[in-house]
Amino acid sequence: MERFLKCVGMMCAAFLIFSGTVWAQDSYSRAPSDIRLGGNEPIVTPPSGGTISSFTQLPLDSDGWTDVAHIFQNPDYYQDSRIVYVSNSGNDSTAVIYTAGDSVVGNDPFQPAGNVQPFASLNTAYSYLRDGYPDIMLLRRGDTWNNNLPSWEKSGRSVIERMVLGAYGDISVDRPKTGQLRNGEDFSYVIFSDLELDENERSLNFEGNISHVLIEGILCPPGPTGGMVIQNPSGFGGVDYLALRRCVVAGRYRPSGSTGYVMGMYIDDSINLLLEENIFDDNGEDEFDVPSNTDLRCHNTYVMLGRGLGENHIWKYNISTRSSSHGIQAGNGGTIIGNLCIQNPIAIQTTREDSWYTGCSAEVRHNVVLHGTDISSDDRRGWGILITNADGQIIEENIVAENNNSGMPFGILARNDTRDGVGMSVNNVSIDNNIVYNWNGSNVIDGEQLSLIGPRISNVSITNNRFHANNSDLRIVQLSAVNDITESGNNSFYGTCPPSEQFYIGGTEYTLSGYKSVMNDSTSDSNQTVPSKAVGLLDYLTSVNETASFSSFYINLRAQRKGNWHEAYTAIPIINFVRDGFGFTPIIKD
Fold first, then answer.
1. What is the DSSP string of 89-124?
2. What is the rounded radius of gyration, in angstroms, for the C-alpha atoms of the chain?
3. What does the alpha-carbon distance between residue 4 and residue 557 come to, in Å, rounded to a whole number?
4. Distance CA 162, CA 165 (A)
5. How far is the C-alpha of 302 from the C-alpha of 144, rounded, in Å?
6. Closest CA to 405 of 345, 451, 450
7. Is the dihedral of CA 573, 325, 247, 40 positive or negative?
8. Structural domain includes residue 152
9. Cα dist. 424→61, 215, 302, 349, 458 in Å?
10. Three-class SS of residue 239?
11. Structural domain contains residue 557
């Protein structure tokens, strides 16, 4: 049946809606009461040249985008879905609701085979989606709606058969633009993709119990206060199997005079979480760049701690640039792999400190941090990797390089604090095969290439690392006590400060030989680390024949989207350029 419902006038709309509802109940083989639980479906075969996401269980095409059309073509899925199109040129009275077999839709609802008859109203189109079904609502690329999207209250059927809110039409055309995306009820099994939301407060705001939700290719443009907020204020663990992929959140600012905290992305109460290939740029700054209104609590990203519910948080291949304070604030740690941080005051904080959740594990591997900055002239920073509240963390094969601007250049910093009378600790940490290179800073008030500060530090090993600084005001290593490090070996330490001051342990200065003696380290040396090429961002841009300027780089970052996705402006090529300079093998996207 090519068309099963056509509204021909307002006088008969109610009758047709009723008829369509009865038809659906009589004809569909799977009703909402037949919803299958996520994880029980057979995994679909990947498309040609593509793969399957191990997190979402959804296929990815050869360009790395989630490929719902590939599932749509499988006769086991989406066969009873409704497909509604929305366009500025549409008409609610003549719009058609399509089904999977309609020739106008063809094999790919996102690129319909014929001329569809769309709705004009977002609310009217949404009203035809059915809770518990894999229905699809698509907005025409290039169109604009000045009102908010409907308050989202509907779920799909399963992990594979998700409800979809997305875009249709020529992918060379920009995303459809609309207002805020928010929810009114709990929901699950939904994909939100390829939309530009408005600039108002919380462009995307989901609260409550949500699970198996994919947010992909969404743009939160510059605007006041936070960009994305996803949380469950009424309880803990309500955000589960949330995937955020290839979204751009940029220029979310704190209104001048405001004292609120502004995040590009804020997530709380999450259990299973994937953050993959997103771009977070210049979030949390003051509206008019007033230094006195900057705040160390405004960040590009901020994930809160859970409540020990077995959280599985994965950060991979994201780009964080120009944050007001933290680039990646990883909450309770997890897997932090292959991320790129440029011009952030604090690039990566492995875990958050809170008195009600102490001792977080993390795997921090293959990240690259470049060009550190301060929060302001009065609030100096330039921290590459910050380790706090740790119990079982691996810091491995990360590169922190080329900082000539910040006033407190700590390459790798482990420290603890006391929260609500509870002392945080740094325990069981392996710092292995990392490089801190020319993390020199400017007008330095404090900083070291490696620093472990505070009490309650135990069982920390540093092996196979290369530390190199060309600032005579910087020590190489600072430790609060000799026993902070339980194993040291095969490291290269190089600095230009006086040899007798390069190591500062428990209030005493040491030479390299003195350090090795107190650490029982027989294999470390003072060899320089010299990359085979210049490894800064502008050097990379020159190498790929792109305009070698920071401003151009950030413009191109913000322009990333489906149909305009350039690998040169993704994390892995830049990371591999830097890794190659230091003799590391390239990382490969999994």
1. T--TTT-B-EETT-TTTTT-TTS-SS----BS-HHH
2. 26
3. 43
4. 10
5. 30
6. 345
7. positive
8. no
9. 44, 34, 19, 15, 12
10. strand
11. yes
Q: Is residue 574 part of a domain?
A: yes
In 3-state terms, what secondary structure has residue 575? helix
List the strands of the sheet with 204-207, edge to edge.
181-182, 204-207, 228-231, 263-267, 299-303
One-letter amino acid at 13 equals A
Q: Are strands 418-419 and 422-423 parallel, antiparallel or unpaired?
A: antiparallel
Query: 13: number of CA atoms within 13 Å, CB side?
Result: 12
pLDDT tens sequence across 450-502: 999 999 999 999 999 999 999 999 999 999 999 999 999 999 999 999 999 99
CA distance 180 to 156: 21
Q: Look at residue 311 and tell me whether its pLDDT is greater than 90.
A: no
Instruction: Report the distance separating Cα 150 and Cα 133, nearest Å.
Output: 17
Work out the end-to-end distance of the chain between its first and last CA atoms, rounded to an integer number of angstroms: 42
Structure tokens at 568: 């040169």
| Pick from 350, 474, 347: nearest CA to 400 | 347
**Which amino acid is present at 323?**
S
For residue 561, tell me if it sits in a domain.
Answer: yes
What distance in Å separates the CA atoms of residue 275 and residue 318, rounded to the nearest whole number?
A: 7
The answer to whether 181 and 201 have CB atoms below 8 angstroms apart is no
- The DSSP letter of residue 237 is S
Q: Cα(24)–Cα(46) distance, rounded to whole angstroms?
A: 31
Tell me how many domains the chain contains. 1
Quote the CA–CA distance of 22 and 160 in Å, as a whole number.
Answer: 26
Q: Are 326 and 381 in contact (CB under 8 A)?
A: no
**What is the phi/psi pair of residue 25, to 5°?**
-65, -35
71-117 pLDDT, tens digit each: 999 999 999 999 999 999 999 999 999 999 999 999 999 999 999 99
Single-letter amino acid, residue 87: S
Q: Does an H or E element contain 70, and which?
A: helix 68-72
Domain that holds residue 568: 537-581
